[in-house]
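pasting for ref
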Amino acid sequence: MPVSVRNIVKMMVIFSLYQGKKHGYEIMNEIEESTGKRPSASQIYPFLTKLEENNLIEVDETGDRGKKVYSLNSEGTDFVERKLDMFSEIISSTIEKNLSVCAHCGCKVYEGGVTEESDGEDLRFCCKHCAKSYLD
């Protein structure tokens, strides 16, 4: 059965492995550090087994104290990169509507920035320096 990545924990597992070799507890610690909530072993290890069964990872049992160390193989790297492309499109389309463009330099501004009025029109700038340069 193909690997399904339908929740944030699974996404974080494959992204963690994309960054390098890790044992299960390292993955769990990274997820906890990122989210503030520790995933259970029952969320991590069955998914790692599924990745192994689908030939997406390699398992080395020579880690500290005999711990298994997991790493993506080339097929796994391709799999993660396809997921990254898919999710980056989703994220981009979600935040795109919240972006404004600096009237001076053209960079995209998600939050913050400076709004100044010029000729009765509100103009958006990424910073006070761009606003000053544009308005001078």
